[in-house]
Design a protein that fits this description.
The chain has a single domain, classed as Orthogonal Bundle (434 Repressor (Amino-terminal Domain)). The protein has five helices and no strands. It is elongated.
């Protein structure tokens, strides 16, 4: 019987040490934030450079945030949200 990708990844996640699972969760959240920033930036027709100029953040930092390779501070996220005419808010988990 063929196993699906979901089956294989679920099995692998089950073998991970608890600290590895925690790191994976942090990465997943950073990736979610990155996707939201990219979506908002592109929907407003902005380049990374234009967004960087609007919020006073280096373009390289915008790139790293969008790639999920850095964790922006709350202040940086606020500045990006303001530049994208958006709100930064915490949402209760379902």
């Amino acid at each position: 019987m063929d196993r699906s990708y979901q089956d294989i990844t679920a099995e692998r996640r089950g073998r991970l040490a608890p600290e590895s699972a925690a790191v994976g969760e942090v990465f997943a959240r950073a990736y979610d934030i990155a996707l939201q920033i990219i979506e908002l930036r592109e929907s407003r027709g902005l380049t990374q450079s234009e967004l960087a100029e609007r919020c006073g953040v280096d373009q390289g930092d915008i790139s790293r945030i969008e790639r999920g390779s850095t964790s922006p501070t709350a202040r940086t996220l606020q500045r990006i949200a303001e530049a994208l005419d958006s709100d930064l808010r915490l949402v209760s988990r379902a």
